[in-house]
Amino acid sequence: MAEVLVTLGIIGVVSAMTLPTLVKNHQRQVYVTQLHKVVNELSQAAELYITDRNSIGLKETPLYNSDVGLRNFIKNYFKVVKDCGTSTNGCFADKYKSIDGSKTVTYNTITCNIVFTLASGASICADTHDDNKRIIGIEVDINGKQGPNIFGRDFFYLSIDNNGTVFDEYEYDEKTFTVSSPWSPYFAKILNDGWKMEY
Fold first, then answer.
1. Distance from C-alpha of 142 to C-alpha of 112, rounded to nearest angstrom
2. pLDDT, greater one: 26 or 27
């Protein structure tokens, strides 16, 4: 009987030590899976939009540098369940923090060309751009107003290029990447690490 109790005690100690890590790793994988779904949805919609218009790229379509074109693209190629107009208030959380908790950004006063929530629960704030690479700039909370409302966990800065490819708004540099900045290239880091959230 004593041996069984000792064995159960050892199992309990080992479980108590490993369970938090397992839960944390699982939650990170859930965030990555949600992000992957949003990225695929954005990319597929942009590519389909290009094809439907017999265009070579987004620059040749009505959405290029046009608020009205962007709004029509969103309404016709996505399942929007909530349209917040041009304000993040109502679709996004009020505040977002950096991963290390050192910075907080008030977000309910931000405006974009169009702000909406998808059927998947992701909230998107999108703007058109006319530079050579970035055609659409996107700020996305992959699970809407739900927590944790942390940059790099459920909030990411993305862009869509002329070909419909989704990429990080910011360039990834391993030497300067930091979890204290809301503007670190978290999506680029996840891609660099093989679709893993290792920060």
1. 17
2. 27
- DSSP per residue over 73-115, as a string? HHHHHS-EEEE-TTBSBTTB-SEEE-TTSS-EEE-TT-B-SEE
Q: Which DSSP category does 32 fall into?
A: H
Is the pLDDT confidence value at 20 over 70?
no
pLDDT in tens, 163-186: 999 999 999 999 989 999 999 999
Bridge partners of residue 18, in order along the sequence: none
SS3 1: coil
Tokens of 125: 């704030």
Q: For 195, left (φ over 0), alpha (ψ -120 to 50), or beta?
A: left
Show me where the domains of the chain are located: 2-192
What letter would DSSP give residue 161? Answer: -
- Residue position matching structure tokens 């977002």: 96
How far is the C-alpha of 42 from the C-alpha of 39, rounded, in Å? 5
The model's pTM is: 0.87
Closest listed residue to residue 63, CA positions, set 144, 126, 106: 126
Among 64, 39, 71, residue whose Cα is nearest residue 140: 39
Percent of the chain with pLDDT over 90: 82
Copy the structure tokens of residue 73.
């693209």
Vertex 37 angle, CA 166 and 76, to 5°: 75
